[in-house]
């Protein structure tokens, strides 16, 4: 059994999830129809509303949603918000109008949480926030399934510190490209933790050597442009360490480092389910994508469906918070983790 398969099995069993206090689906955010009555499995319709489907992580997550829905015999709508707030609002209306009793929501903007929750509650729809935590209009957290973002970010920082130390690069010569995405707290929590762990783990590194830049769209093109800007404003730097809140950020930065001819003396560590990191880290020739923190979107997508099904059909308590673990990926275990 591969590391990835083992993680999938463990997640399905709930043995690696850290679950906080529970509440019933109807108490959490409106329940099946605000009456507390259970829904027949034959009548259950769910909806998966990701913020975007143009990134590999959400495609993997959707695959998990679809597979678990098929296993349970549940109809689940896949409604892409296309990284647009207005589209997300209209897609929630679509889900409600098509009879969804439960919604798996990954909001484009966490500030939309209260208004989206008000709409869902008025329609008697139960919401499970996935990946990005949100609050309802009263300031109460919505049941959440995601990751321990602070620990994951810290693991990235520790891995970068180890990589730099192993390579023997003079710390004074290093610059750190910190590609941040300030619009989402699940991203800032990761990158803030990475920064602190890197400062703690790499003796002699100074905070002024960490150059933070927000990369547009949290995608590869935005990261490429952000890294090009850092390279232009810091000519002569030969050793770069790179981190971001996802794989796209590091891949975009690596492409810029390659174009500048300093990729062989630089290292980046990303976060994601291997949609991009697997390609980079399994190349025959090593490149500047040196490590990854694996988070299993497919497993979490499946678990989200199971949690809503158990709450709405079986009347079980909907966990207030479930945190899935990450796996540190190096060149040594990349084939095992990403090999399927």
Helix content: 40-55%
- Please report which band the strand proportion falls in: under 5%, 5-15%, 15-25%, 25-35%, 35-45% or over 45%: 15-25%
Query: What kind of sheet is the major sheet?
Result: 7 strands, mixed
So what's the oligomer here? single chain
The low-confidence parts are 8-26, 30-35
Fold and architecture overview:
With about 350 residues, the protein is of the alpha/beta class. The chain has 2 domains: about 130 residues, Response regulator (Rossmann fold); about 150 residues, Rossmann fold (3-Layer(aba) Sandwich). It is about 45% helix and about 20% strand. The protein has 12 helices and 15 strands. It has a 7-stranded mixed β-sheet with strand order 1-14-7-6-5-3-4, with helices on both faces. Helix 3 links the parallel strand 3 and strand 4. Helix 1 packs parallel to helix 11, helix 3 packs parallel to helix 11 and helix 6 packs parallel to helix 7. The longest helix is centred in the middle third of the chain and has 19 residues. It is elongated and about 65 Å long. About 5% of the residues have low confidence.
